[in-house]
Amino acid sequence: MTQYTFKADAFAEASALLSNYYGIELLPSISRKDDTIVLETSLDIDGIRKIFEDLPGVSKNDSTVLDALILLSSYIKSNAPLLDEESFAKATKAYIRQDVLRLYLFCEENKCSYEGITIRGKKGSIRLHNSLNWLWKDLAGPYLEKNFPDILNAEDARKELLTGKRRRGRRPNDPRVPVLLWGTYRMLSDLHGFHSPMPNSLCNFIIQLLQIQDVFPNETEIDTLWIRAELRYINSRPVKPRFPIK
Asked: How far apart are the first and last CA of the chain?
């Protein structure tokens, strides 16, 4: 857990922004010490700071907006809806299939390579000689043949990955997404300010923020075109999305 400390007046201002832009009446798990409020959170606070600092321009409201984004993100992470067993199984299967398609293409493209293969992770990497292409012949190939018999060639695998990434109109199942898109767009447009109404920098920020909040996965089909289209659609509606979701 990480601690984030607010002065009492800063916390009140940030809370008011969440109420105004999202409809959230924030009741976080906090402790008071003198005139400060301490938020206990598992949130990646440094990650939010970084993407916020990468936004173009500077505003006198930035410290308050950052406080509000941290409060919002902590609230969203700590109040995440639980997937039912069926939804969880479908989501897991979809992510595994994407990985399998990438693995299939990788093995296909490297089956005649004798330079070895490096596997990297957060805590290090290993180098495999892959003698006689054993990674495919003995491991990946039999696994795919048994569990994914419909993946037959590189062209179809590449087409499936490419098609998935281009589904602009696909809406996430999470009902919180429209509220978070619209609230964040309005708050940053009003208080930080941009030279154009829906710049790529703001759309990218929204994607990254929702990834930090665990609303979007780290590898998502959503791009700036989709964000902009959703914002325009929401703007055209007479009633704007807010919490609580009905």
From this structure: 32
